[in-house]
């Protein structure tokens, strides 16, 4: 009996086709596994570097915050010194020690606080350990970098930074220095010296358990870690300071990269084993399609998971890009669009309107009296108010309008596809009504209104700059006419709009460049013919336009708030000129200086005026302060007037009779003189009512024992009327026009010569 089956089995060999399938399967799967492990290795390495980059960015941000927060301490020290000097001639060491102790105990890494009058270290806290600093003159220091830093700091009001460097008292540190000017004169410096190590500790740069190795250097000086990392840094972050920059170079720690290599090796071994198993099962169960299909399904699921992970990474990147874009185009306080978005959006809408022929409107909003909220409650509550304004506008406007906060208390609304001006008017009215309800701040209701300017495209401008400018001008007209209202731009109402904008933009530069001049108009005692006083009148010597009269720029300065520094500069110039005349041998002569309403609103007005007069070694009686009738009649200003008068200043009311004051107020006002306005003087010999008013003023002044002077006297008829009615102090063109100081000096020479001749 034969056993063919057994014989057949023993001699069985796999067909060539099966080996072909196995070889092809091995090549294909081996290539896929190699590609997969390579991609996975790159992904793991990328994640390690990404995590390292995140850590490095966090450390760089922490380092920048730690350095900046300490450098800014010089601002507080400067404020302390300025405050001390405003009340005393010198710094009180005890107060200085108390001030410095508050910060030394709370913030680590402060080596010392120091004050350098005239560049010489006089006050240092703590004194122990910092003895080498006392008496150091930074302008003559041996170290040239110290001298250069002192010279640079003297020329700027900003914080200057020196270091990292070796400190005179030992160790490596960072030093901030800031200059102090008192009344535009250099007084000295304040300085804060910082230890480097606590700064690095606060930035978490000594943490041994981080996943990166890094090195730190500041302004080129190596401070921490392996300096070789800067040769070809894998990861590098720069920390920009007020001056100079620091760098942090980093690489992932080798142990993490090695772990990736080990993980890939393990995966490769597992994959190789899997491949052998697959080949085995293919060989044994080649015909079992179900099992093979299962294997294919498993592999497909793995690939889908990998694809899902990649899609998630892409979505993460897209979300980050959207967040950055949001920050670039939105205001941080209100969440509304910002100026950048507004400018781009307005330009795009104008281009679309040119193509479609449709009209659009720009509403320019400026909050009325917002500054008083900031000054009274502080900027935090000011921001709360701005956020509430943004919410009200967003809730009320939902018809396709674009709302933006472009800065400060200014908002804009772009209304596209405007059918008629009535549509823009309705929106302006709707916006104005939003501000009729009070704002609740600190459990108190505050009423804040808005002034609105409206400009239409293309009627009021065919480009974004013109349209925005005209909306701004219309807004200012709304403010001028009483605020809490809207105005449409009308070119006939602003014939000098362009010139007004140019003057507004040039005023600040004029103040910085000393372009203002003072002309003086003599005040004459008619019986004696002597000059008994002068009125100081400002002129603007514009480099392109020449002399600009005050009527062209004073209202703009009042509106912008620049009238405060301009008024203070005028008083300084007048006092300096009075001192110069005194030193030249002329007898004292009183000079009248105008005070604006904004100046009068300063809380420290009396101290500022007193300081300027004392700096020029003048007697307060040499200065006459002119205020308007409206300012004088305000109850909250009378205490200030009385304080100035008690100091010895003469107080006069300018433009008397032109407002709506009460004579009952006049008898209790702390004033010395009233000035008859030129509008009444012009009516002499032409209007009996003006003459009657002048006679009444003369009688009132006589009964109240006040001096009185007539201004704007230009004709002999006017002079005769005033003399006949016992008004002998005259100011006007009939005697002298306003003249520069050199011409006034010649008049004073002549008067002195006449007086000596009569003697």
Automatic annotation (TrEMBL):
Residues covered by the EAL domain: 500-752
**Is the keyword Nucleus assigned to this protein?**
no
Q: Which keywords fit this entry according to its UniProt record?
A: Coiled coil, Membrane, Transmembrane, Transmembrane helix
What superkingdom does the record give?
Bacteria
Output the Pfam families linked to this UniProt entry: CHASE, EAL, GGDEF
Indicate the segments forming the CHASE domain, all copies. Answer: 123-205
Give the protein's recorded name: EAL domain-containing protein
């Amino acid at each position: 009996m034969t056993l063919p089956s057994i014989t057949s089995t023993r001699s069985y060999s796999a067909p060539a086709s099966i080996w072909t399938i196995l070889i092809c399967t091995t090549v294909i799967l081996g290539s896929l596994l190699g590609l997969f492990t390579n991609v996975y290795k790159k992904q793991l390495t990328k994640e390690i570097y990404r995590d390292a980059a995140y850590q490095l960015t966090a450390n760089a941000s922490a380092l920048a915050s730690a350095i900046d927060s300490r450098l800014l301490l010089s601002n507080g020290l400067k404020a302390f010194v300025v405050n001390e000097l405003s009340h005393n001639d010198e710094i009180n060491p005890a107060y200085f020690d108390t001030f410095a102790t508050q910060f030394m105990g709370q913030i680590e890494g402060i080596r010392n606080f120091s004050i350098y009058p005239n560049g010489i270290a006089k006050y240092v806290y703590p004194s122990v350990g910092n003895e080498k600093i006392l008496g150091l003159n930074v302008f003559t220091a041996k170290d040239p970098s110290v001298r250069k830093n002192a010279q640079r700091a003297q020329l700027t009001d900003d914080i200057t930074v020196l270091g990292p460097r070796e400190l005179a008292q030992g160790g490596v540190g960072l030093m901030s220095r800031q200059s102090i000017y008192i009344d535009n004169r250099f007084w000295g410096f304040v300085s804060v010296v910082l230890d480097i190590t606590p700064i690095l500790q606060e930035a978490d740069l000594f943490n041994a358990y981080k996943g990166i190795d890094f090195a730190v250097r500041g302004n080129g000086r190596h401070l921490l870690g392996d300096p070789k990392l800067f040769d070809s840094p894998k990861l590098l972050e720069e920390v920009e300071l007020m001056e100079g920059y620091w760098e942090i170079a980093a690489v992932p720690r080798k142990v993490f990269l090695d772990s990736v290599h080990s993980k890939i090796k393990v995966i490769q071994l597992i994959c190789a084993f899997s491949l052998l198993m697959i080949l085995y099962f293919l060989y044994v169960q080649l015909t079992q399609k179900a099992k093979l299909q299962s294997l294919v399904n498993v592999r497909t699921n793995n690939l889908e998971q990998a694809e899902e992970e990649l899609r998630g990474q892409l979505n993460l990147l897209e979300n980050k890009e959207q967040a950055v874009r949001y920050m670039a185009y939105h205001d941080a306080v209100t969440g509304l669009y910002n100026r950048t978005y507004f400018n781009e959006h307005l330009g795009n809408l104008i281009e679309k309107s040119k193509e479609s022929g449709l009209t659009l409107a720009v509403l320019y909003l400026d909050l009325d009296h917002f500054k008083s909220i900031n000054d009274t409650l502080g900027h935090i509550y000011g921001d709360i108010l701005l956020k509430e304004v943004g919410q009200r506008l967003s809730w009320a406007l939902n018809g396709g309008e674009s709302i933006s906060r472009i800065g400060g208390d200014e908002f804009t609304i772009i209304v596209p596809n405007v059918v008629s001006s009535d549509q823009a008017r309705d929106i302006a009215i709707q916006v104005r009504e939003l501000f009729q309800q009070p704002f609740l701040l600190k459990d108190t209701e505050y009423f804040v209104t808005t002034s609105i300017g409206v400009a239409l495209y293309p009627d009021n401008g065919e480009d974004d700059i013109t349209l925005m400018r005209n909306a701004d001008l219309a807004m200012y007209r709304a403010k001028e006419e009483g605020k809490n209202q809207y105005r449409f731009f009308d070119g006939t109402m602003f014939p000098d709009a362009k010139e007004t904008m140019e003057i507004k933009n040039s005023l600040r530069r004029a103040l910085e460049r000393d372009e203002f001049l003072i002309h003086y108009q003599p005040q004459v005692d008619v019986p004696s013919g002597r000059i008994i006083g002068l009125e100081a009148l400002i002129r603007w010597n514009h480099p392109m336009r020449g002399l600009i009269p005050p009527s062209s720029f004073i209202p703009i300065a009042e509106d912008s708030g620049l009238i405060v520094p301009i008024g203070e500069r005028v008083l300084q110039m007048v006092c300096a000129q009075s001192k110069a005349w005194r030193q030249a041998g002329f007898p004292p002569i009183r000079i009248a200086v105008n005070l604006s309403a904004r100046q009068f609103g300063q809380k420290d007005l009396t101290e500022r005026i007193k300081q300027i007069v004392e700096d020029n070694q003048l007697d307060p009686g040499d200065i006459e302060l002119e205020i308007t009738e409206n300012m004088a009649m305000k109850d909250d200003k009378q205490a200030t007037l009385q304080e100035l008068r008690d100091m010895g200043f003469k107080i006069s009311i300018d433009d008397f009779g032109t407002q709506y004051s009460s004579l009952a107020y006049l008898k209790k006002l702390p004033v010395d003189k009233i000035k008859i306005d030129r509008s009444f003087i012009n009516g002499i010999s032409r209007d009996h009512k003006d003459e009657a008013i002048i006679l009444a003023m003369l009688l009132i002044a006589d009964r109240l024992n006040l001096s009185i002077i007539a201004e704007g006297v230009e004709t002999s008829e006017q002079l005769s009327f005033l003399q006949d009615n016992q008004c002998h102090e005259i100011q006007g063109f009939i005697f002298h026009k306003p003249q520069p100081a050199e011409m006034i000096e010649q008049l004073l020479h002549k008067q002195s010569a006449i007086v000596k001749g009569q003697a």
